[in-house]
Amino acid sequence: MQSTTEIFERYEVIRSRLPQLTVRPSTQDICNLSDIAEHVQAFVFDAFGVLNVGESLIPGADERVAQLRDMGCQIRILTNAASYDRQGAIAKFEALGIALEDDEIITSRDATLQTLTPACWGVVAAAEDELLDIPGSFVRLEEVAADYDKVQGFLFLSSQVWSAKKQALLEVSLLSNDRPVLIANADLVAPRDDGFSLEPGFYGHKLVDLGAQQVQFFGKPFPEVFALAEKSLEGVSPDKIVMCGDSLHTDILGAAARGWNTALITQDGLFASHDTQPFSECSGIHATWRMPRI
After folding, report:
1. Neighbours of 25 (CB within 10 A)
2. Per-residue pLDDT tens over the stretch 5-37
3. What residue ranges define each of the domains in the chain, with the CATH number in brackets?
């Protein structure tokens, strides 16, 4: 199991692959988002570590979202979770007690699929994912080496059933015949009830380390998913949007690179039980505001 410090250090190692950022010199501590809501037109929320941990709602998150709506703020959820399609994502948040309209959730899966070209794709997906939104032909990758060799590219949606053996099959096939690899979740890890799970971004960066040339990452901090959010917030100036997240290298960096304001949430996600200031100073990534929970 990886620690917060180890995860942070890995993000710093791959920093050159992430969007570039003009450093913000300082962060203001506030109690919660209601302190700044009158100056904001839209709040965009990461999910894991901000609204939920694993399958559990963070206490008060649903009430805060409802309060911000009542104050006239637009609400969006911007998640790197790509293990389920759009309807599955909406159903998940409804089960947590957060009702959403269709245009209020933007996923890294959306951003990935809009770039998908006609081909036979090798798909890495959760067992229960029916892949109904995947166009064209595809092969669900398991432990058959020939399946890795015959596809024209790879679509990595979920690491839920991924394993070291499957990663080795992918590496061998890819290094003998370099092809596109679309990583639909750029996160290295996600906070769970029992620690951090390894996410598709972790495995994608291992491929880049080995020399794969056609690996493309989607989701925060990369621009495609932020552009989708901005499109859904037509007429809202970037400096009136606040990204609320628990990760400096994904939520805060990606949003700041778009000119958004940012709020770092510290109590339940990546930096739970840690002082975030040393991490910000080391990375040069400073949120506009910081608070324990939303």
Report:
1. 6
2. 999 999 999 999 999 987 778 899 999 999 999
3. 4-110+221-291 (3.40.50.1000), 117-217 (3.40.50.1000)
Query: Would you state the pLDDT for residue 1?
Result: 72
Low-confidence spans in the chain with pLDDT less than 70:
none
Identify the pLDDT of residue 23.
Answer: 72
Long-range contacts of 52-56 (CB under 8 A, 24+ apart): 52/96, 53/191, 53/192, 53/193, 53/268, 53/269, 54/191, 54/192, 54/193, 54/194, 55/193, 56/193
Q: Each residue of 200-217: pLDDT tens digit?
A: 999 999 999 999 999 999
What count of Cα atoms within 13 Å lies in the side-chain half-sphere of residue 161? 12
